Amino acid sequence: MGAYILRRLLLIIPTLFGIMLINFTLIQFVPGGPIEQVIAQLEGQGDVFEGFSGAGSGGAELETANEDYIGARGLPPEFIAQLEKEFGFDKPPVERFFTMLGNYMRFDFGDSYFRSISVVDLVLEKMPVSITLGLWSTVIAYLVSIPLGIRKAVKDGTSFDTWTSGIIIVAYAIPGFLFAILLLVLFAGGSYWQIFPLRGLTSENWHELSLLGKIGDYFWHITLPVVASTISSFATLTLLTKNSFLDEIKKQYVITAKAKGLSESGVLYGHVFRNAMLIVIAGFPAAFLGVFFGASIIIETIFSLDGLGRLGFEAAVARDYPIVFGTLYVFGLIGLLVGLLSDLMYVLVDPRIDFESRRV
Question: Is residue 186 part of a domain?
Answer without folding.
Answer: no
